[in-house]
Design brief:
Length: 379
């Protein structure tokens, strides 16, 4: 069993998803650095991390666990199928380690059938196929007791604005997300406490249909039948930083709207492609990351922090593909703990009567444990 519940404000559970650990580290300029490992191997790495008291939860795409065959969309329902048996094997490994499932999300980005979109594909047959795949993923999530069902925008986006059916595209998306709610209720899948939308401005498409948290919250209230069931899992720093937005602002807005359901966590160079660096790794974002956790504590939010990142390609060690993956998990945990310590120091910050610049310098001094005297000696 996992040693104990992690409960250092504002984090109730630390979640490490399958796809982050399994990632073989390819990029558009080169193939994989690491061999791809089977989902059972990934489950074992996660189970070991749980037993060491490093993580309490995990998450997955359907495709991270078992392959999908469009000609056999209900294979999970057949207890004799290879799909069902493998899912049960993985579930036992996770259960024995006491790992909870934070979310299940349907991969609509990997298979080239969905190259022009999944739930918003202009071809009604492909939209129907995407929906079928989502339903299978909902069933797999129910088998594992996932807390949330997540919709990441994936390839629902465009490169050519004049090729988009603007009259219908958001209705198609609403139909699919309302349909997922109906499917959960019809099947009495009580494991799901809610659904989340994960916005992203671009990549893999030139533009995505729900590029920011603000777009996604508007969509929930404007288009969905049960807005209370849906929230956001922003990916911070990465996804909002890609659009030059600020993470402290995003969590401030989402918590005030009561729509911050959980967090995807990693690091990012502003305005670049999706770096997915581990938290605190890379040249930017220390202040922003720490201040984001300070803000979450200030508003009293508590919830799951889920890593969504991969090890640096330079850190991949093909001679030790399991060992470097285990180290990656530990690095992420160390980065989160470092952030929590620094955010805790900021809790003493006083703002009254100070200029904005004074507050910012005082915050940096607190975070770095600098005393006024030392700083004055260097003036
Ligand atoms: C991609 C991303 C996804 C989602 C889950 O940028 O963040 O991995 O979190 O599909
Ligand atoms: Mn993510």
């Amino acid at each position: 069993m996992a040693k104990k519940a992690f409960n250092i404000d504002p984090v109730t559970m630390r979640s490490m998803p399958f796809w982050c650990v399994g990632n073989p580290l390819s990029d558009p300029f080169g193939g994989s650095v690491l061999p791809k490992i089977d989902s059972i191997e990934v489950a074992k790495i996660l189970a070991e991390a749980a037993k060491e008291g490093l993580i309490e939860a995990t998450s997955f795409h359907d495709d991270d666990l078992v392959p999908w065959d469009p000609a056999n969309p209900n294979d999970d329902l057949d207890k004799k199928s290879a799909t069902y048996q493998k899912l049960q094997t993985i579930k036992k490994i996770l259960d024995d380690a006491g790992l909870k499932i934070n979310m299940a999300t349907c991969s609509l980005h990997g298979n080239s059938l969905f190259r022009n979109g999944g739930l918003t594909n202009p071809d009604p047959k492909l939209r129907a196929l995407a929906k079928k795949k989502c339903e299978r993923n909902i069933r797999i999530g129910a088998m594992f007791g996932a807390k949330y069902l997540t919709y990441w925008v994936a390839r629902d986006g465009f490169e050519v604005p004049v090729a988009v059916d603007w009259k219908n595209v958001y209705n198609w998306l609403a139909d699919a997300l309302n349909g997922a709610y109906d499917y959960i209720k019809k099947n009495k899948f009580t494991n799901y406490v809610g659904m989340t939308i994960e916005p992203k401005p671009n990549e893999p498409r030139g533009h995505m249909f729900l590029p920011t948290s603000g777009h996604a919250v508007g969509f929930i209230y404007g288009k969905l039948k049960h807005p209370e069931f849906y929230g956001i899992n922003p990916e911070l720093l990465q996804h909002e930083s890609m659009a030059l937005l600020n993470a402290v602002h995003t969590v401030g807005y989402l918590t005030s709207m009561k729509k911050l359901f959980f967090l995807h966590f990693g690091s990012q160079i502003k305005a670049q492609f999706d770096n997915d660096f581990p938290p605190l790794i890379g040249p930017e974002g220390l202040k922003e990351t720490v201040q984001m956790f300070w803000a979450l504590r200030k508003v009293g939010w508590k919830g799951v922090v889920e890593f969504d990142c991969h090890m640096l390609r330079a850190d991949g060690d093909p001679s030790d593909p399991i060992g470097c993956r285990k180290k990656f998990v530990r690095d992420c945990i160390r980065a989160l703990s470092t952030t929590l310590v620094l955010a805790d120091r900021l809790m003493e910050l006083k703002t009254e009567g100070l200029s904005a610049s004074d507050v910012d310098l005082a915050a940096t001094a607190l975070m770095c444990k600098l005393d006024k005297k030392t700083v004055a000696e260097w003036m």
